[in-house]
Amino acid sequence: MSAKVIEGKRIAQEIREEIRQETERLKERGIVPGLAVVLVGGDPASAVYVGNKEKTCKEMGFHSEVHRLPEETTQEQLLAVVADLNRNDAVHGILVQLPLPKHIAEKAVIDAIAVEKDVDGFSPQSTGNLVIGDESLLPCTPAGIIELIRRAGVDPAGKHAVVIGRSNIVGKPVAMLLLRENATVTICHSRTENMEAIASQADILVVAIGKPKAIGRRYVKPGAIVIDVGVNRLESGKLAGDVDYDECLDVAGAITPVPGGVGPMTIAMLMQNTLKAAKRKAGV
Ligand SMILES: Nc1nc2c(c(=O)[nH]1)N[C@@H](CN(C=O)c1ccc(C(=O)N[C@@H](CCC(=O)O)C(=O)O)cc1)CN2
Known about the structure:
By secondary structure, this protein is of the alpha/beta class. The protein folds into 2 domains: 30-114, 3-Layer(aba) Sandwich (Rossmann fold); 140-263, NAD(P)-binding Rossmann-like Domain (Rossmann fold, 3-Layer(aba) Sandwich). It has 10 helices and 11 strands. The chain has helices at 8-28, 44-60, 75-87, 106-112, 124-132, 140-151, 171-180, 195-199, 245-248, 262-282; strands at residues 4-5, 34-40, 63-69, 93-96, 160-164, 184-188, 204-207, 225-228, 232-233, 239-240, 254-255. It has a 6-stranded parallel beta sheet. Strand 9 and strand 10 form a beta hairpin. The structure holds ligand LMY7XDAE. The ligand Nc1nc2c(c(=O)[nH]1)N[C@@H](CN(C=O)c1ccc(C(=O)N[C@@H](CCC(=O)O)C(=O)O)cc1)CN2 binds at residues 49, 95-98, 120, 140-141, 231, 239, 258-260, 263-264, 266-267.
Protein backbone atom coordinates (compact mmCIF):
# COMPACT_ATOMS: atom_id res chain seq x y z
CA MET A 1 0.00 0.00 0.00
CA SER A 2 1.22 3.50 -0.75
CA ALA A 3 2.01 5.92 2.11
CA LYS A 4 -0.14 8.93 2.85
CA VAL A 5 1.73 11.95 1.48
CA ILE A 6 1.97 14.74 4.06
CA GLU A 7 1.42 17.89 2.05
CA GLY A 8 3.57 20.45 3.82
CA LYS A 9 2.96 23.04 1.15
CA ARG A 10 -0.81 22.91 1.63
CA ILE A 11 -0.56 22.79 5.44
CA ALA A 12 1.85 25.76 5.42
CA GLN A 13 -0.64 27.67 3.28
CA GLU A 14 -3.43 26.94 5.80
CA ILE A 15 -1.24 28.17 8.67
CA ARG A 16 -0.30 31.33 6.74
CA GLU A 17 -3.98 32.05 6.15
CA GLU A 18 -4.70 31.69 9.90
CA ILE A 19 -1.83 34.11 10.63
CA ARG A 20 -3.03 36.59 8.00
CA GLN A 21 -6.49 36.66 9.53
CA GLU A 22 -5.18 37.07 13.07
CA THR A 23 -2.89 39.88 11.89
CA GLU A 24 -5.87 41.69 10.36
CA ARG A 25 -7.60 41.61 13.74
CA LEU A 26 -4.45 42.74 15.60
CA LYS A 27 -3.99 45.66 13.22
CA GLU A 28 -7.44 46.95 14.19
CA ARG A 29 -5.96 47.28 17.71
CA GLY A 30 -2.87 49.06 16.39
CA ILE A 31 -0.53 46.05 16.60
CA VAL A 32 1.52 45.44 13.45
CA PRO A 33 3.90 42.46 13.66
CA GLY A 34 7.32 43.34 12.25
CA LEU A 35 10.12 41.10 10.96
CA ALA A 36 13.64 42.17 10.03
CA VAL A 37 15.74 39.79 7.95
CA VAL A 38 19.47 40.37 7.53
CA LEU A 39 21.27 38.85 4.56
CA VAL A 40 25.04 39.11 4.24
CA GLY A 41 26.64 38.33 0.88
CA GLY A 42 25.33 36.89 -2.35
CA ASP A 43 24.63 33.20 -1.72
CA PRO A 44 21.96 32.49 -4.38
CA ALA A 45 19.89 30.02 -2.31
CA SER A 46 19.89 32.39 0.69
CA ALA A 47 18.80 35.26 -1.57
CA VAL A 48 15.80 33.18 -2.71
CA TYR A 49 14.85 32.21 0.86
CA VAL A 50 15.10 35.83 2.03
CA GLY A 51 13.02 36.99 -0.94
CA ASN A 52 10.36 34.41 -0.01
CA LYS A 53 10.37 35.61 3.59
CA GLU A 54 9.89 39.22 2.46
CA LYS A 55 7.04 38.23 0.13
CA THR A 56 5.34 36.15 2.82
CA CYS A 57 5.59 39.02 5.35
CA LYS A 58 3.78 41.26 2.88
CA GLU A 59 1.08 38.63 2.35
CA MET A 60 0.62 38.39 6.12
CA GLY A 61 0.28 42.17 6.46
CA PHE A 62 3.47 42.41 8.54
CA HIS A 63 5.93 45.27 8.66
CA SER A 64 8.94 43.88 6.82
CA GLU A 65 12.56 45.04 6.61
CA VAL A 66 15.31 43.31 4.67
CA HIS A 67 18.88 44.45 5.27
CA ARG A 68 21.00 43.21 2.36
CA LEU A 69 24.65 43.70 3.29
CA PRO A 70 27.72 43.14 1.12
CA GLU A 71 29.91 40.02 1.46
CA GLU A 72 32.76 42.09 2.96
CA THR A 73 30.62 43.34 5.89
CA THR A 74 32.65 42.92 9.08
CA GLN A 75 31.38 41.14 12.16
CA GLU A 76 31.37 44.49 14.05
CA GLN A 77 29.23 46.09 11.34
CA LEU A 78 26.80 43.21 11.41
CA LEU A 79 26.62 43.33 15.22
CA ALA A 80 25.85 47.05 14.98
CA VAL A 81 22.92 46.31 12.61
CA VAL A 82 21.60 43.69 15.04
CA ALA A 83 21.96 46.13 17.98
CA ASP A 84 19.93 48.74 16.05
CA LEU A 85 17.23 46.17 15.31
CA ASN A 86 17.13 45.13 18.98
CA ARG A 87 16.23 48.76 19.79
CA ASN A 88 13.73 49.18 16.93
CA ASP A 89 10.15 49.11 18.28
CA ALA A 90 8.63 48.33 14.86
CA VAL A 91 10.64 45.10 14.74
CA HIS A 92 9.37 42.15 16.82
CA GLY A 93 11.48 39.47 15.14
CA ILE A 94 15.06 39.45 13.88
CA LEU A 95 16.45 36.76 11.61
CA VAL A 96 20.01 36.65 10.32
CA GLN A 97 20.05 34.36 7.30
CA LEU A 98 22.51 31.47 7.57
CA PRO A 99 25.08 30.55 6.46
CA LEU A 100 27.11 33.72 7.07
CA PRO A 101 30.37 34.41 5.21
CA LYS A 102 33.30 32.51 6.74
CA HIS A 103 34.92 35.58 8.35
CA ILE A 104 31.90 36.14 10.62
CA ALA A 105 31.33 34.00 13.73
CA GLU A 106 27.70 32.87 13.53
CA LYS A 107 27.53 32.22 17.26
CA ALA A 108 28.53 35.80 18.16
CA VAL A 109 25.82 37.18 15.88
CA ILE A 110 23.08 34.82 17.05
CA ASP A 111 23.99 35.56 20.70
CA ALA A 112 23.57 39.28 20.01
CA ILE A 113 19.87 38.99 19.04
CA ALA A 114 17.55 39.95 21.92
CA VAL A 115 15.90 36.73 23.14
CA GLU A 116 12.38 38.18 22.83
CA LYS A 117 13.09 38.91 19.13
CA ASP A 118 14.85 35.61 18.41
CA VAL A 119 12.28 34.27 15.92
CA ASP A 120 14.78 31.64 14.72
CA GLY A 121 14.96 30.24 18.25
CA PHE A 122 18.70 29.62 17.84
CA SER A 123 20.07 31.66 20.77
CA PRO A 124 21.49 29.85 23.83
CA GLN A 125 18.66 31.20 25.98
CA SER A 126 15.95 30.03 23.55
CA THR A 127 17.69 26.66 23.32
CA GLY A 128 17.87 26.41 27.12
CA ASN A 129 14.18 27.27 27.41
CA LEU A 130 13.38 24.54 24.90
CA VAL A 131 15.36 21.96 26.85
CA ILE A 132 13.79 22.76 30.24
CA GLY A 133 10.34 23.23 28.71
CA ASP A 134 9.99 26.95 29.45
CA GLU A 135 7.97 29.22 27.19
CA SER A 136 10.07 30.49 24.25
CA LEU A 137 10.09 30.94 20.49
CA LEU A 138 10.78 27.53 18.93
CA PRO A 139 13.20 26.98 16.03
CA CYS A 140 11.12 27.11 12.84
CA THR A 141 11.98 23.85 11.06
CA PRO A 142 11.66 21.66 14.19
CA ALA A 143 8.38 23.40 15.14
CA GLY A 144 7.15 22.84 11.58
CA ILE A 145 7.98 19.13 11.83
CA ILE A 146 5.93 18.74 15.02
CA GLU A 147 3.03 20.56 13.38
CA LEU A 148 3.21 18.22 10.35
CA ILE A 149 3.21 15.15 12.62
CA ARG A 150 0.19 16.51 14.51
CA ARG A 151 -1.71 17.40 11.37
CA ALA A 152 -0.98 13.92 9.97
CA GLY A 153 -3.04 12.69 12.93
CA VAL A 154 -0.11 11.14 14.82
CA ASP A 155 0.34 11.70 18.56
CA PRO A 156 4.05 11.18 19.39
CA ALA A 157 3.26 10.21 23.02
CA GLY A 158 4.66 6.76 23.74
CA LYS A 159 5.97 6.31 20.20
CA HIS A 160 9.59 5.55 19.37
CA ALA A 161 10.95 8.54 17.44
CA VAL A 162 14.34 8.24 15.76
CA VAL A 163 16.06 11.42 14.60
CA ILE A 164 18.92 10.95 12.14
CA GLY A 165 21.18 14.02 12.35
CA ARG A 166 22.37 16.06 15.34
CA SER A 167 22.67 19.63 14.05
CA ASN A 168 21.95 22.49 16.44
CA ILE A 169 19.26 23.89 14.16
CA VAL A 170 17.28 20.74 13.34
CA GLY A 171 18.39 17.40 14.82
CA LYS A 172 18.89 18.36 18.47
CA PRO A 173 15.89 20.72 18.80
CA VAL A 174 13.47 18.38 17.01
CA ALA A 175 14.59 15.57 19.35
CA MET A 176 13.84 17.86 22.33
CA LEU A 177 10.42 18.76 20.93
CA LEU A 178 9.56 15.10 20.35
CA LEU A 179 10.60 14.40 23.94
CA ARG A 180 8.36 17.24 25.07
CA GLU A 181 5.56 15.48 23.18
CA ASN A 182 6.31 12.38 25.28
CA ALA A 183 7.92 10.30 22.53
CA THR A 184 10.79 7.92 23.35
CA VAL A 185 13.60 9.53 21.39
CA THR A 186 16.79 8.12 19.88
CA ILE A 187 19.28 10.36 18.07
CA CYS A 188 21.46 8.74 15.39
CA HIS A 189 24.46 10.42 13.78
CA SER A 190 27.52 9.76 11.64
CA ARG A 191 29.18 7.64 14.37
CA THR A 192 26.10 5.54 15.16
CA GLU A 193 26.61 1.81 14.70
CA ASN A 194 23.82 -0.31 13.20
CA MET A 195 21.82 2.75 12.23
CA GLU A 196 19.61 0.74 9.93
CA ALA A 197 18.60 -1.57 12.79
CA ILE A 198 17.76 1.40 15.03
CA ALA A 199 15.94 3.47 12.41
CA SER A 200 13.82 0.52 11.34
CA GLN A 201 12.34 0.36 14.87
CA ALA A 202 11.03 3.91 14.64
CA ASP A 203 7.33 4.77 14.59
CA ILE A 204 8.42 8.31 13.70
CA LEU A 205 11.58 8.74 11.62
CA VAL A 206 13.01 12.25 11.13
CA VAL A 207 15.94 12.56 8.74
CA ALA A 208 18.13 15.69 8.62
CA ILE A 209 21.58 14.83 7.30
CA GLY A 210 21.93 16.76 4.04
CA LYS A 211 22.75 13.68 1.89
CA PRO A 212 20.49 13.06 -1.08
CA LYS A 213 18.48 9.82 -0.98
CA ALA A 214 20.75 8.36 1.75
CA ILE A 215 17.90 6.67 3.61
CA GLY A 216 16.30 3.81 1.74
CA ARG A 217 13.47 1.38 2.50
CA ARG A 218 15.58 -0.83 4.79
CA TYR A 219 15.66 2.02 7.35
CA VAL A 220 11.89 2.30 7.49
CA LYS A 221 9.54 0.27 9.69
CA PRO A 222 6.38 -0.66 7.79
CA GLY A 223 3.71 1.95 8.57
CA ALA A 224 6.13 4.50 10.10
CA ILE A 225 5.75 8.25 9.61
CA VAL A 226 8.81 9.53 7.73
CA ILE A 227 9.77 13.21 7.88
CA ASP A 228 12.42 14.26 5.38
CA VAL A 229 14.18 17.53 6.22
CA GLY A 230 16.80 17.40 3.44
CA VAL A 231 16.67 19.83 0.53
CA ASN A 232 19.50 18.77 -1.79
CA ARG A 233 20.05 20.18 -5.26
CA LEU A 234 21.08 17.35 -7.65
CA GLU A 235 23.34 17.85 -10.68
CA SER A 236 20.24 17.52 -12.83
CA GLY A 237 18.97 20.68 -11.13
CA LYS A 238 16.16 18.73 -9.42
CA LEU A 239 15.67 18.72 -5.64
CA ALA A 240 15.92 15.55 -3.59
CA GLY A 241 15.44 14.85 0.09
CA ASP A 242 17.67 12.79 2.37
CA VAL A 243 15.15 9.96 2.03
CA ASP A 244 14.79 7.90 -1.11
CA TYR A 245 11.14 8.85 -1.50
CA ASP A 246 10.22 6.44 -4.32
CA GLU A 247 11.79 3.51 -2.51
CA CYS A 248 10.09 4.29 0.84
CA LEU A 249 6.66 5.21 -0.48
CA ASP A 250 5.20 1.71 -0.23
CA VAL A 251 6.81 0.95 3.18
CA ALA A 252 6.00 4.09 5.19
CA GLY A 253 2.54 4.84 6.55
CA ALA A 254 3.01 8.55 5.86
CA ILE A 255 5.86 10.51 4.29
CA THR A 256 6.79 14.11 3.47
CA PRO A 257 7.83 14.91 -0.11
CA VAL A 258 10.73 17.13 -1.19
CA PRO A 259 9.98 19.73 -2.36
CA GLY A 260 6.67 20.60 -0.75
CA GLY A 261 7.10 18.91 2.65
CA VAL A 262 9.06 20.36 5.57
CA GLY A 263 10.59 23.32 3.65
CA PRO A 264 7.45 25.45 3.31
CA MET A 265 6.68 24.91 7.01
CA THR A 266 9.91 26.71 7.96
CA ILE A 267 8.65 30.05 6.64
CA ALA A 268 5.11 29.50 7.99
CA MET A 269 6.57 28.91 11.48
CA LEU A 270 8.75 32.01 11.13
CA MET A 271 5.60 34.05 10.52
CA GLN A 272 3.97 32.38 13.53
CA ASN A 273 6.96 33.24 15.74
CA THR A 274 6.89 36.86 14.58
CA LEU A 275 3.18 37.09 15.38
CA LYS A 276 3.79 35.52 18.82
CA ALA A 277 6.64 37.96 19.55
CA ALA A 278 4.44 40.92 18.57
CA LYS A 279 1.55 39.70 20.73
CA ARG A 280 3.85 39.13 23.68
CA LYS A 281 5.26 42.62 23.41
CA ALA A 282 1.74 44.08 23.27
CA GLY A 283 0.69 41.91 26.21
CA VAL A 284 -2.15 40.18 24.30
N1 LIG B 1 18.49 31.99 9.89
C1 LIG B 1 18.14 30.87 9.24
N2 LIG B 1 18.87 30.46 8.19
C2 LIG B 1 18.51 29.31 7.56
C3 LIG B 1 17.35 28.59 7.93
C4 LIG B 1 16.61 29.05 9.04
O1 LIG B 1 15.60 28.43 9.48
N3 LIG B 1 17.03 30.20 9.66
N4 LIG B 1 16.94 27.48 7.19
C5 LIG B 1 17.54 27.20 5.92
C6 LIG B 1 16.95 27.89 4.73
N5 LIG B 1 15.51 28.19 4.79
C7 LIG B 1 15.12 29.28 5.47
O2 LIG B 1 15.84 30.16 5.77
C8 LIG B 1 14.58 27.47 3.98
C9 LIG B 1 14.94 26.34 3.26
C10 LIG B 1 14.03 25.70 2.41
C11 LIG B 1 12.75 26.18 2.27
C12 LIG B 1 11.77 25.60 1.33
O3 LIG B 1 10.63 25.99 1.30
N6 LIG B 1 12.20 24.67 0.46
C13 LIG B 1 11.37 24.20 -0.61
C14 LIG B 1 12.20 24.07 -1.87
C15 LIG B 1 12.77 25.40 -2.27
C16 LIG B 1 13.57 25.34 -3.56
O4 LIG B 1 12.97 25.18 -4.60
O5 LIG B 1 14.81 25.51 -3.47
C17 LIG B 1 10.77 22.85 -0.26
O6 LIG B 1 11.41 22.08 0.50
O7 LIG B 1 9.68 22.58 -0.74
C18 LIG B 1 12.38 27.30 3.00
C19 LIG B 1 13.29 27.93 3.84
C20 LIG B 1 19.02 27.58 5.93
N7 LIG B 1 19.23 28.87 6.50
